[in-house]
Design a protein that fits this description.
The chain is an alpha/beta fold. The protein has two domains: 3-390, Rossmann fold, CATH 3.40.50; 414-615, Rossmann fold (3-Layer(aba) Sandwich). Helix content is 35%, strand content 14%. The strands form four sheets. A seven-stranded mixed sheet has the order 17-16-15-14-18-20-19, with helices on both faces. Strand 19 and strand 20 form a beta hairpin.
Length: 670
């Protein structure tokens, strides 16, 4: 196991298989990541923070996050350093264009999404709260990887501080709160307790903390040793905790020094609860900062995203402990000081910075005045956001999520109404795209219903199918039966050496695609793990045998759109898919059966005497049955109470997930 999680208070250990953020024993303490690899290593074959993947709580890295990942720039300041009289001022710049949204929250979002996708909880919506930057970053990356989030934010933040590059954000449900940031946090916490949803975790999320910890790793790599000081403005506090945790790992390595960096935190006056608690030598934040009346102080701040009424201060492993262990400092910065610091940084370093980063620079100036740092010390400054003035892309408001009335919800329709609605969608697409739209057929129960509906409107509708070398013989025999019964001539694509014998005997044409890359990966994984590729790395197996061929088929056939048999009740990965998915300017995916239930599919099959795959009729002594059809090694029977797709990839972390066809566009290039 690459890593485990450990409660700092009771010592309970948790595996990486689940998305866990808090100790089950209700301990008022953080969980920390314990990595199997104890020596600091860098993998330069990856870009950005993924170079430090050995100390990130992930198992693998999605290509979309590699292609669209955010990063930071670490460099030694000259002009600002000279102005302040510092010899070793190291700036970690989280700014556009390195960070796509101009904030270090991009790092937290991409690692959080990758972390959850590597667990058995993958697909469950993340519930989170934000007052600005978190929302922007998580919305951006939910669009990149198409992962559902439920976002709670103040209406003030929604209007003033939260935006997206996309006009539509189909994977985001934004709920505006008419209160302050803590009200949004409180409601999000309540909502996340609903079964089937996950609390993103905030500062308790090791994915967020360890992603920020890569700044300490990068600075240590740059300097050759652990920095003497670390500066950052604090709202909830995970950034400072992350720097401390990363430094602890570096000390255990033994090659980069034995002294922890002095942590310097700062807040925006007059709302500075952690500052006041620290200067008063208190582990407890004064309750006046946590009452409703605190909103009056919050309204006076410029760095509004720093105003968390319940930060990670008092709990074990929190800011109080970090400041104590590092003999750290806290600072309170006025709005006037923030503005001056922003102007100074832009003038000398050539880039605009957000108010929170202005707090950080102002605290650095205060530290020099108070002589809590020396000119020759190595100082790491986390510029948490910047370059937003330089972003030329259009930024749009995210509309609040509105619940549909029952009359408008398709799921409330009768089967007859659903049939008509599905036919209307198909008819409209056929009129729009003509022969440039095709039915994608997997020959499972849903595909058979989709095929029947589409052919009832146009018997000559184009059909294409992608098969794999791991399809059971029963599937191939069933396809032959269907093709003869309906006189069909679909375009069939398959990665393989030879056309299946049963197809040859029945003169069924198949376009064979090269199998060499698959065989190479299959052999490599078998040698490295001792397991077959579909067990050890099912994502790669699916990509090579299904995703890539589908994209090849889509391009080869010159399609502009395609029909899919997806249903929203099949499993958590399909719960928030739209009926019509505008994937790109060249591709639209239509899901006519989206609102149908499993029972309605079988009723339609029975009423219309549609042939069904024989595996659905298999009987098992314990009452289980096949409910979702895939490749032979990745399909097992399940009980009625389970989610319909729970029998897919049962023996892997991919259980109940997706092959990748519906999470990446068919026309997308490798």
């Amino acid at each position: 196991m690459k890593y485990t999680l450990k409660c700092l208070k009771c010592g309970k250990i948790y595996s990486a298989d689940h998305y866990i953020c808090s100790c089950e024993n209700k301990c008022d303490a953080l969980l920390t990541t314990v990595y199997e690899q104890k020596n600091f290593s860098i993998d330069e074959s990856y870009p950005g923070i993924w170079q430090y993947h050995q100390w990130l709580p992930i198992q693998k890295i999605d290509q979309r996050l590699i292609d669209h990942g955010s990063c930071f720039r670490t460099y030694k300041s000259t002009k600002l350093a000279a102005h302040l009289g510092l010899q070793n001022l190291i700036i970690c710049l989280n700014a556009y264009p390195y960070c796509h949204t101009g904030s270090f929250k991009d790092l937290e979002a991409e690692v959080t999404f990758q972390r959850i996708m590597n667990t058995v909880d993958a697909g469950k919506p993340l519930v989170m709260s934000s007052d600005g930057n978190n929302a922007i970053s998580f919305v951006h990356y939910s669009n990149v990887i198409r992962y559902p989030i439920f976002l709670f934010a103040t209406e003030d933040a929604r209007i003033r501080r939260i935006w997206s590059f996309s006009k539509t954000n189909p994977y985001t449900r934004l709920f505006p709160i008419y209160g302050d940031y803590y009200d949004a946090i409180s409601l999000a916490n309540q909502f996340s307790r609903v079964e089937g949803y996950l609390s993103e975790g905030g500062y308790r999320n090791v994915g967020r903390r360890d992603s920020v910890g890569t700044m300490m790793l990068d600075a240590t790599r740059f300097l050759g040793k652990i920095p003497d000081h670390y500066f950052q403005a604090l709202g909830s506090g995970p950034g400072a905790i992350a720097a401390y945790e990363a430094a602890e790992r570096l000390i255990l390595d033994g090659r980069f020094g034995k002294t922890l960096p002095k942590i310097h935190g700062a807040q925006n006056h007059p709302y500075a609860p952690m500052y006041e608690a620290w200067v008063n030598h208190s582990r407890t934040i004064d309750e006046r900062f946590q009452k409703e009346s605190a909103k009056q102080m919050i309204d006076q701040t410029m760095a509004h995203v720093l105003t968390n009424r319940f930060p990670a201060y008092s709990l074990m492993g929190g800011i109080y402990d970090v400041l104590t262990e590092t003999k750290g400092e806290m600072y309170s910065v006025t709005n006037e000081e923030i503005e001056k610091a922003q102007q100074l940084f832009e003038k000398l370093e050539g880039i605009s910075i957000v108010p929170e980063a202005g707090v950080t620079i102002a605290s650095l100036q205060q530290a020099l005045e108070k002589q809590t740092i020396s000119p020759q010390d190595s100082i790491l400054v986390n510029i948490t956001g910047g370059g937003r003035k330089e972003i030329k892309k259009e930024r749009m408001h995210i509309e609040p999520y509105r619940f549909l009335t029952k009359k408008l919800q398709i799921s409330q329709r009768t089967l007859e109404e659903k049939i008509q609605h599905s036919k209307d969608l198909i008819r409209q697409a056929l009129q729009t795209y003509g022969d440039k739209v095709a039915v994608a057929c997997s020959w499972g129960k849903d595909s058979m219903v989709l095929l029947h509906l589409a052919r009832s409107i146009n018997p000559e509708v184009p059909i294409f199918s992608v098969l794999t070398i791991h399809k059971p013989k029963d599937t191939l025999d069933f396809i032959v039966k269907v093709l003869h019964q309906y006189h069909l001539k679909p375009r069939i694509f398959m990665v393989g050496e030879t056309i299946p014998e049963v197809f040859q005997q029945n003169n069924i044409e198949v376009t064979l695609l090269p199998i060499e890359q698959y065989r190479t990966q299959e052999e490599k994984i078998k040698k490295e793990t001792g397991h077959e590729i579909y067990y050890a790395d099912p994502d790669l197996c699916c990509k090579l045998l299904k995703v890539v061929p589908v994209r090849y088929a889509y391009t080869t056939l010159g399609l502009q759109a395609w029909f899919s048999g997806l249903r929203s009740t099949e499993g958590f990965t399909r719960k928030y898919i739209a009926e019509i998915e505008k994937i790109s300017d060249h591709e639209t995916k239509i899901n006519p059966l989206l609102a149908w239930t499993e029972e309605e599919i079988w009723k339609y099959i029975k009423n219309n005497k549609i042939p069904a795959h024989p595996w659905y009729k298999k009987k098992f002594t314990d009452g289980r049955k096949i409910r979702s059809l895939g490749c032979e090694p990745c399909t097992v029977p399940i009980f009625d109470h389970e989610s319909e797709r729970d029998g897919r990839w049962r023996k892997t972390l991919k259980k109940g997930g997706e092959c990748g066809i519906h999470t990446r566009s068919a026309s997308e290039r490798i």
